[in-house]
């Protein structure tokens, strides 16, 4: 008997913490500034728990019945909290008001739980034992929840379902309590019926969670800036204008949801489709998982290693409910290994070789990033290419930054690689360039994966043709000790903007 | 239960309190002067417990001593020991390491050697820095190499250009042309001994020469004064014009450099020490050298070495305190230095240009700082180590040595922070640790008349069985001179032993 009791203590403690984490995480996702969101959510939640504990003194009769109804209320409010918050953000102006109302409501109810439970149990155990056990299991539950939440729940279930699942657990504990404490309970039938009703409602929510997320998503991003976060490495900003979602890293555009397929299909397929034997692929940069999404279209590719500096970036694109729809959950695919490391150093210490390497770094706007476009880097990259392997390098615009583009091509050549420069038009970027590089001859592919939105087999060879205003110009190679590229780049873009 | 959670929470929120200046830890890391003062004060040393007969003893484990050992070993001669006073070899090329980075304690670069610098090239080939005539890119100083803080902003390069007038530019152009003329004479060579001829330029200071030649630009005069302070630890007023010109007219770099490593020339010293480990005895201070029949008796700690030849590669000013038969050493002036390694938990905020490898503040009494992590392949660097160099050139060397010993660590810490604060107002929020090394006799100073000095020439001209090898025989302390002197001494010893 006591052990069963304590299991329910563990469960309700876990539920309490999960709702708190859901609220904090959602607020950080949707509003940014995670320190502020978590602090205020935790603060108001703990304060509300205090209020709940105080209010417990006014509950005098029918303790078990009250406990069961409180559990049900926690189950309903907590279980639907995540869905409610998504919808509130999408449809109302008062997201924060609703956020704190929900947090305080759950806090008060959870604050009532333990005092009531202790009073219910007070005749069954010695007080000393009781306090020790209840609190032990309470904290155990909190630990379990805090570990489950980031490791299992958010990646596998998502926010909406996680909250609903724990709502179901709360309601389950309520129903179970009507059996556990049946000797202290008068009218049981009504309570049990209520429990079942709540369970059914939450179960239905679980089944319809996908729809709830979609409904919310469709209206979620009405603001121009829908997400902003400073990570250790950069500022991640998502903006939305009508159906166009754009990602900016440290104020440089990374993609627009309307035309990113052009960019990423062109980045991956001309190279990878020409390598039918490719098994191991390396992606350097590209923490948005969009290049990986394209690579996953090749069933023969056995392993994809993605190396991106910023763990916040890859986490965001593994878990954010909207962003995982764009990259089709590519980063949580079992063939994909995400590594958060500085690419140059990581490659320097790696012994692996790859059939295809995608190099998708931010433009060389400063000397730190410029290191990733040097002869030293490309020589190192060449060492990690298999004999027939190819690398593709994001190489800025051959039209707007013509000398920078041809400087990158020249740098690849100086590193001892054969180069095959090509380009395409991406509306949000303009004319954009890539360079394939390898130790052996390149032939355009004869087949492409099905259902591509932009590329066709006939189009690929055309991409290697450059118009007169993009033809090669003289450029020095970019070297660690003489980073001409950063100066070319600055000069090229200054020409455009003046 | 709530109170424990609250305590936990408040602990987690401490990080949100407003930023204040950090507490800076650190101290002096002096290693040599206590030992040196034992010699100066003619302390009594314990009698030897054992005598080892060995043909050759090298005294001093700096670059000169290590180069002598390197040459002996490469010539197939293995019957020698190298005695180093300190626990760590390397001399002016010694270095340190903390959890953030390795860093230099003194010399931190070698200019890329030209075709004629055969010895340096030979060593660099052996160390894998030069391969098939190509310099390994990661050992060449990365872009951006240098910057200067002038008129409230950073500019690229150390030659002052911010607010330079036509007159300034004209002086710089004329100065460069004059230096080319001097270079063409073939007298300004590295090693200096190969080209140096008695010269009237040695009879005046470089400051006087500038006046004679009517170079009036304050920027040019600052620049030349800076070069003298940086390379010789002396003001332009105290530097022989011949040596001042040598700095500018001796090199024709074939590659953008210099060669550098996080730990500066400590990288070379470490590699040499690894190769020559079997000969090196650290913590072995030579306190007496006396003739013993036809041999020389070298007393170091509790061991006497009975040697046929001694290569004295320690600073020459020590010789009279150690050797019974040392020739007189007059007119040898040594510059006192202070080097500090500053650990930064974050980089200060920057506005104008990116942090360079070498960062100089115009009109500062110090020389600026070198960034130890500059040669890192990482693109994102937050914690770093700066090596702050300060040659105490103003005033007399003896007075400055006294100052170095009298003032405590806090005094120097404040002086350093105060100096940096002009260019980095938030520096006190960045630095967490400052280690300071005081070097009373850091390097020889090429004062007017050094070239003609009879004592210097006598010491440099090897005779008998005690051969001097320190770079101070050249009048200035640079890597190439130390290596040359060491190698030359080794060859002389090999010749006379056979």
Structure explained in plain terms:
Chain A has 18 helices and eleven strands. Chain A has a seven-stranded mixed β-sheet with strand order 7-6-5-8-9-11-10, with helices on both faces. Chain A folds into two domains: 2-219, Growth Hormone, Chain: A (Up-down Bundle), CATH 1.20.1250; 256-497, 3-Layer(aba) Sandwich (Rossmann fold). Chain A is elongated. Chain A is an alpha/beta fold and 498 residues long. The longest helix of chain A is centred in the N-terminal third of the chain and has 54 residues, at 127-180. Chain A starts with a helix and ends with a helix. In chain A, a hairpin with a 3-residue loop joins strand 10 and strand 11 (430-438). In chain A, helix 1 runs parallel beside helix 3 (63-79), helix 2 crosses helix 5 and helix 3 (63-79) packs antiparallel against helix 5. Chain B has 14 helices and 21 strands. Mean pLDDT of chain B is 92; it is low at 1-19. In chain B, helix 3 packs parallel to helix 9 and helix 5 (166-185) crosses helix 8 (241-249). Chain B has 498 residues and is of the alpha/beta class. Chain B has a domain at 34-93 and 262-332 and 448-497: FAD/NAD(P)-binding domain, CATH 3.50.50.60. In chain B, a hairpin with a 6-residue loop joins strand 17 and strand 18. Helices cover 31% and strands 21% of the residues of chain B. In chain B, the strands form five sheets. Chain B has an eight-stranded mixed β-sheet. In chain B, strands 11-4-3-15-21 form a five-stranded parallel β-sheet, covered by helices on one side. Chain B is globular, with a radius of gyration of 24 Å. The interface between A and B is medium-sized, with 36 and 26 residues.
What is the fold's blueprint, element by element?
The complex is a heterodimer of chains A (498) and B (498).
Chain A: H1 2-31, H2 34-55, H3 63-79, H4 81-91, H5 95-121, H6 127-180, H7 189-207, H8 209-220, E1 225-230, E2 235-241, E3 244-249, E4 252-256, H9 260-272, E5 280-285, H10 290-295, E6 303-307, H11 311-319, H12 323-326, E7 336-339, H13 343-349, E8 354-360, H14 367-370, H15 375-383, E9 385-394, H16 402-414, E10 418-426, E11 430-438, H17 459-462, H18 484-497
Parallel strand pairs in A: 5-6, 5-8, 6-7, 8-9
Antiparallel strand pairs in A: 1-2, 2-3, 3-4, 9-11, 10-11
Helix pairs in contact in A: 1-2, 1-3, 1-4, 1-5, 1-6, 2-5, 3-5, 3-6, 3-7, 4-5, 4-6, 4-8, 6-7, 16-18
Chain B: H1 2-13, E1 25-28, H2 33-40, E2 50-53, E3 56-59, H3 63-74, E4 80-83, E5 95-97, E6 102-104, H4 118-126, E7 130-131, E8 134-135, E9 146-150, E10 153-156, H5 166-185, H6 206-212, H7 218-232, H8 241-249, H9 266-275, E11 280-281, E12 286-292, E13 295-300, E14 303-307, E15 309-312, H10 319-322, E16 333-344, E17 358-361, E18 368-371, E19 384-391, H11 397-406, H12 409-421, E20 431-445, H13 454-460, E21 466-468, H14 479-497
Helix pairs in contact in B: 3-9, 3-14, 5-8, 6-8
